[in-house]
Amino acid sequence: MQAARRAALGPLNPAIRIFAATAVCVWALDQATKALAVATLEPGTSITLVPHVFWFTLTRNSGAAFSAGAQMTVMLSMIAIIVVVTVIRMARRLADRGWALGLGLLLGGASGNLTDRILRAPSPFRGEVVDFLHLTHWPIFNVADIGLTIAAAVILHRGFKGVTMDGGHDGDPDPEEAQRASD
Count of domains in the chain? Predict the structure, then answer.
């Protein structure tokens, strides 16, 4: 039955594969590293990896980036749910591998922090995000945050190059309109 279903769907678009694999890898790496950090690090205590540059420091963040909006955890959770649903819906149009990578990073990062907000203390949708990566002169962050940051760079790059999600370029005629015009 699986083979018949797969045959009916046809081969999976390579961009969709990149999108899905990236999202799953970022989410899984984020959750695994957070679990390891919670199990092995003491809150507020740092382990030096590179002196004066990089430490592991466990902390919990109820806000958004740089701990902004700490009193708006439920709203941040709702925004993250909207982002996740929107990105999944947009992914159906993916044909460009760069966009696939960017949106996969965005989905994985947003899902990683959303998982914390839903499942961690103090309560569902009010949970605190686990952060543990600490660079000099930078707020403590996690793997999901890295995914979100790289996603922003990739998406901006594709946008500035004029590449659309379907692999075309800004200004290209809409394929459906071109087909109707030629009929």
Answer: 1
Q: Tell me the residue range of the domain where 56 lies.
A: 13-168
116 among known catalytic residues = no
Quickly tell me which residue has 């793997």 as its tokens. 143
Sheet of 129-135: strands edge to edge? 46-50, 54-61, 129-135
Q: Which of 145, 170, 174, 183 is catalytic?
A: 145
The rounded distance, in Å, linking the Cα atoms of 59 and 44 is 6
Per residue of the chain (183 residues), give pLDDT as tens.
Answer: 455 444 444 568 999 999 999 999 999 999 999 999 999 999 989 999 999 999 999 999 876 665 666 677 888 889 999 999 999 999 999 999 999 999 999 999 999 999 999 999 988 888 999 999 999 999 999 999 999 999 999 999 999 999 999 998 887 766 566 566 665
pTM of the model: 0.85
Instruction: Specify if 183 maps to a domain.
Output: no
Q: Does residue 3 lie within any of the structural domains?
A: no
Does the active-site annotation cover 145?
yes
Q: Which helix (H) or strand (E) holds 98?
A: helix 97-119
Any domain includes 61: yes
Q: Is residue 131 part of a domain?
A: yes
